[in-house]
């Protein structure tokens, strides 16, 4: 699986698919269900197929990843599920299906928000809040692409509010949201 990730990072998605599929086959031969490993392999296959311009096959693998996650008892399951939903949202946004994209981003936001609202472990709560902000930022890009700068701004402001509580002022994840908000102001010709 690490070899597949290496090929993906180098942009060789054909080889990445091959090695993710080999990893998946190995995990499937196990006597025990290796749900998180199978999820990772299916997500990797989905990502590589998306990069290869095969969105339907990519979506099928992301759905398999979600199916494996549903069978997992791992405490990090909500974050992995939210991350996979974000990937599916990106896939559909890329092909212009904004309704499907929004649905996946909204479910990711809901899932992370639920964890953030109920977590007793501060680190777990903070991770959930950051996951929710990723959903906000991605959803903002959909609204921006649809020409709804107002809704995009609202979502970016929600992300900014959450990130300002958790991150240092010079953190790139915080600065990225501020840059996106600045781009909206420039587009609106608000130079004050």
Could you characterize what this model shows?
The chain has nine helices and no strands. It has helices spanning 2-9, 13-28, 35-51, 55-70, 77-94, 98-118, 122-145, 149-166, 172-187. Helix 1 runs antiparallel to helix 2 and helix 4 (55-70) runs antiparallel to helix 5 (77-94). The N and C termini lie far apart (50 Å).
Q: Nutshell version of this structure?
A:
80% of the residues lie in helices and 0% in strands.
Round the mean pLDDT to the nearest integer and report it: 94
Question: Which regions are unreliable across 5 or more consecutive residues at pLDDT < 50?
Answer: none
Q: Tell me the distance between the termini.
A: 50 Å
Order of helices and strands: HHHHHHHHH
Count of discrete alpha- or pi-helical segments spanning 4 or more residues? 9
Main sheet characteristics: none
Topology:
Elements: H1 2-9, H2 13-28, H3 35-51, H4 55-70, H5 77-94, H6 98-118, H7 122-145, H8 149-166, H9 172-187
Helix pairs in contact: 1-2, 2-3, 3-4, 3-5, 4-5, 5-6, 5-7, 6-7, 7-8, 8-9
């Amino acid at each position: 699986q690490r070899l597949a990730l290496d090929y993906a990072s180098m942009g060789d998605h054909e080889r990445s698919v091959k090695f993710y599929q080999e990893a998946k086959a190995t995990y499937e031969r196990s006597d025990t269900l290796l749900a998180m490993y199978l999820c990772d392999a299916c997500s990797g296959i989905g990502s590589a197929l998306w990069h290869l311009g095969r969105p339907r096959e990519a979506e099928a693998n992301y759905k398999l990843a979600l199916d494996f996650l549903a069978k997992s008892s791992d405490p990090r399951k909500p974050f992995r599920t939210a991350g996979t939903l974000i990937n599916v949202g990106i896939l559909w946004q890329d092909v212009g299906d904004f309704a499907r994209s929004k649905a996946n981003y909204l479910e990711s936001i809901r899932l992370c928000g639920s964890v953030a609202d109920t977590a007793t472990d501060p680190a777990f709560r903070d991770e959930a809040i950051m996951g929710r902000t990723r959903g906000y930022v991605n959803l903002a890009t959909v609204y921006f692409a649809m020409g709804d700068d107002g809704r995009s701004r609202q979502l970016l402001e929600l992300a900014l509010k959450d990130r300002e509580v958790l991150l240092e002022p010079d953190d790139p994840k915080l600065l990225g949201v501020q840059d996106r908000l600045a781009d909206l102001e420039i587009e609106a010709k608000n130079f004050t």
